[in-house]
Automatic annotation (TrEMBL), chain A:
InterPro entries: Ald_Oxase/Xan_DH_a/b, Ald_Oxase/Xan_DH_a/b_sf, Ald_Oxase/xanthine_DH-like, AldOxase/xan_DH_MoCoBD1, AldOxase/xan_DH_MoCoBD2, AldOxase/xan_DH_Mopterin-bd_sf. This is Molybdopterin-dependent oxidoreductase. Pfam families: Ald_Xan_dh_C (PF01315), MoCoBD_1 (PF02738), MoCoBD_2 (PF20256). Its cofactor is Mo-molybdopterin cytosine dinucleotide. One of its GO terms (molecular function) is iron ion binding. Residues 33-145 form the Aldehyde oxidase/xanthine dehydrogenase a/b hammerhead domain. It comes from the Bacteria. Gene3D superfamilies: Aldehyde oxidase/xanthine dehydrogenase, a/b hammerhead, Aldehyde oxidase/xanthine dehydrogenase, molybdopterin binding domain. PANTHER family: XANTHINE DEHYDROGENASE, XANTHINE DEHYDROGENASE SUBUNIT D-RELATED.
Automatic annotation (TrEMBL), chain B:
This is Nicotinate dehydrogenase small FeS subunit. PANTHER family: OXIDOREDUCTASE WITH IRON-SULFUR SUBUNIT (PTHR44379:SF5). Its EC number is 1.17.1.5. Keywords: 2Fe-2S, Iron, Iron-sulfur, Metal-binding, Oxidoreductase. One of its GO terms (molecular function) is 2 iron, 2 sulfur cluster binding. CDD domains: fer2. Residues 3-79 form the 2Fe-2S ferredoxin-type domain. SUPFAM superfamilies: 2Fe-2S ferredoxin-like, CO dehydrogenase ISP C-domain like. It comes from the Bacteria.
Amino acid sequence: MNTHERIDRDLSERDFTVVGKSVKRSDTLEKVTGAARYAGDVALPGMLYAKMKRSNIAHARIKSIDTSKALALQGVKAVLTHQDVPRVLHAGSPHPRSASVTKDQYILDERVRYWGEGVAAVAAVSEEIAERAVALIEVEYDPLPGLFTIEAASDPAAPPIHENGLGQNYVLPPVFVTRGDVDKGFGEADLVIEREYDLGRPTPAYMEPNVCVSQWDGNGKLTMWTSTQSAFMVRGTLAEVLGVPLNKVRVIVDHMGGGFGAKQDLFQNEFLCALLARRTGRPVKMEFSRKETFVGGRSRHPGKIWLKQGFTRDGRIVAREARVTFNSGAYGSHGPGVTNVGTAALTSLYRCENVRLEGRCIYTNSPIAGAFRGYGVVQTYYALDLMMDEAAEKLGFDPAEFKLMNAVREGDMAPSGHPIVGHGLVDCIRRVMEETNWHELRRREKPETVKRRGIGIGCEMHGSSAYPGIKEQGNAIVKMNEDGTVTLITGTAGLGTGAHTALSQIVAEELGVPFEAVSVVQGDTDIVPWDIGAFASHTTYLGGRAAQLAAADVRRQVLEHAAPLLKAEPGDLAIRDGFVVVANGSNQSLRLSEAVGPQRGMPAVQLVGVGTYMPTKSYSFAAHFAEVEVDTETGEVAVLEVVPVHEIGRVIHPIAAAGQIEGGIQQGIGHTLSEDYVIDLTDGRSLNPSFVDYKMPLSMDMPSIRTIIIETAPDPGGPYGAKGVGEDPIIAIGPAIANAIYDAIGVRFHHYPITPEQVLNALKTKANETRQ
Amino acid sequence: MNRLVSMTVNGEPCELSVALNRTLLDALRNEGSLTGTKKGCDVGDCGACTVIMDGRPVNACLVLAAEAEGAAIETIEGLQPAYDKPHALQQKFMEFGGAQCGFCTPGIIMMAKALLDENPDPSEDEIRFALAGNICRCTGYTKIIDAVRATAEELRRAGTL
């Protein structure tokens, strides 16, 4: 069928009937026929349309807001300003993580902290009237100094953007991670490399703009359809800020059009939409334009990484020191989590016993940085892997061999403090080298033509689940119906990855029923059990394990119930292909519908299993090969081919897993070569909030991708050994490309994105240096 | 001031009362209750709203509803030959994993339909060129290209093109 992805089944201690097969995804018929309902498709009788008034200044106090002209406009039903909404300090990133949550947001404040922050909202009978009313709202500002860079904001003399008492506009106190003796390590080094890496501001640019619809019923209960990865977080934060109990807030997410991490936050719109609906007594829809999705959305954290490492002549890393500084933008959002995770990641990937790391996150008056696939690790491993390439050359090693020599191995301490399971990274690097004939390609002639080719390898590892930063929990309920079919009720959100299909496969496997016998109920906080949300590469790992536990509970009940019918002990029974069978080979069996259905006029037995899972941590690994072609006349870099090798434990659905890898590579090519959301450093204005000006790799830019998945290090914590895959690909591709550019033109860049202009300038500088 | 616009949508005659500045996209989604066509940018950059108008693919957000007077419009909702039978493109997108979050999918499938109507045997480059105005942020395009190519093969084999 599919010609691209290949799975190496190195470990097959048991045969699977459903797991590991690319069954037909349960959500795709609706998607390909246009029937899938996204939040923006919800239309209710009498529905009003809401729009947000956004600031045209980056840092100011609001002196006054005059809404009279807006309210006087025919068709306008309500206007809200900071004077009309509850003033409750809340977290933009509402996870229950005591260590890394920053309560620094109000629904609307009397102060604005970035250009484009919401200052008022209007509900009207049409979107057009709402937009006209927004233009009629007059806001008078008292400007405050705009602090747009890390340097400006972290100056001790700079005014605080938030009064959190930390000084220097810290979002959180600096993070320190120390292992071993770094000074001693540097003393033993034969080679020391020290560099600063500069990181741009890519954004997730999910296709579905942020949107929500609110409706209150006669009992004071709010129903909200919204595009979120964490429905229960939205419910909790809405309840807390609006002052209503949890059973009076119902959040519904049928389908969502991508999130890539960012849609864990609330974006002012959920509160304002709900309050406008309450004020007017009518349902209200609030949909962001694409421009608003950029301006009011969340980006990856831009920043700087200063990295210094000591190496010995025989190729060991004896000391690693780093200072990671991230720009959080106007609010904390995921700043604490990203800083902790990104900084701690530098303890690992390539072995080094002596490590001293510092992580900082700084408020600035720029758009909010939040969670985005790769979560701080994209940034720090870009720096680490680029320096490995440089060190390999200086020490006379092949870069792939050098990475292989230093790759983390089984039992090494991972960033989370857990011992690593298996030799996943080693396996990935080896497989990339075999698959691409690495050494042969490296020996290839390099003619000094206009277009020059180069190859590179980039590596990564990433945790499934956010432990220990967050103690996570996933829950599932599995019911077996009296005809032997199964209903899975899961809290796991459907981000578009195919998670519900994977969960159904796991349940089918556990219960011994065909995949088609399992249906899924999801996406409604009134019905499904609590779930922390879809992020941290954990939906299959966490939600899948919870579903497996619930299914195992049902299986136990089924066997207990069927045992007397088959005159056997429950321990001698199994379920296979929809039959309860006696495992001793006596050929006795009972169709599931007969085993659990109504008997002699008596109602069927109730079979309900509950699974709760609180994971710790596992790590997935990848090594990516990239071949690029650099046009030395235009500076353009074309990625010709990518060969990603991923070790992700047991693969539940190969096509869906490969889809994650290929999509992550697309976004990673973007941030490495073209994607940068640019802020005017004089006034904080967004300069490219559109798909025309924010350049993403599209169908013509994307190379062929030869995806290889290996299963050499299944994790005992995941269902059937499955680990995460969502974030891994976006981390490894960046360094693979940057290293390939060096191989092509002999220029090492220490930043992203690497634009054609910079390539040309660097080539010019290099030519001048050669001439001298 | 609204105006009555008559068009054919998925083979059915259809009269919509719309403002003169209403886009075809908003008219289809709101007055037409056909929400399968998606709004990703509303300014013609992303292709999520691609529909076929008189045989040619258009961004419905760049066409005024009034301009569609008398036109034949095809949307994703009209693609299935029967309610219980997906179109070959829909089938292949499911098989090959061409849809992830699904938000760009209706637009991409309509663009691919327009391509295959015109060119039953497109090369990979031709498929990539045809989809150059359709942004997908989930898949890396690999599986979309595979799905379109496989559809073309199947349709050629079945002789329906």
